[in-house]
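ok so dumb question maybe but i'm new to this and my supervisor (M.) told me to 'just get the structure for Reactive intermediate/imine deaminase' and walked off. so i did the thing. is this what she meant?? sequence i used:
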Amino acid sequence: MREITSDDVPDALGPYSQAIVSDGTVHVSGKTGVDPETGEAPESVGEQTTRTLANVERILEAAGTDADAIVRATVYLTDMDDYDEVNEAYRSYLSEPYPARTCVEVSRLPAPLDVEITVDAELDGGE
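this is what came out, is it supposed to look like this??
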């Protein structure tokens, strides 16, 4: 097991790693759409989704892979009415074949945001 961190994403808000590599898979903890340079997040859920996926990809790059290696994602929304807007941003950021995915509505997230995403991605050659 190996911890992955990136200075290009906001720090973890609690006692957890940004990501862990185990058995050739990168397990990325839940990320949000906070811009690491400004500490702010976009207002629209679509823009938050795009920023969230960019933050996820930065962690994957620190591990030695990228968004094309994502095999599974979990999307947490504070309002399922945002599902279509999230899908539009998700579709424009990721390519086919899309990862397996679960999307659930939650009452709130640790930060006052609308979306959080966690992923699992493959590493070439395994680890």
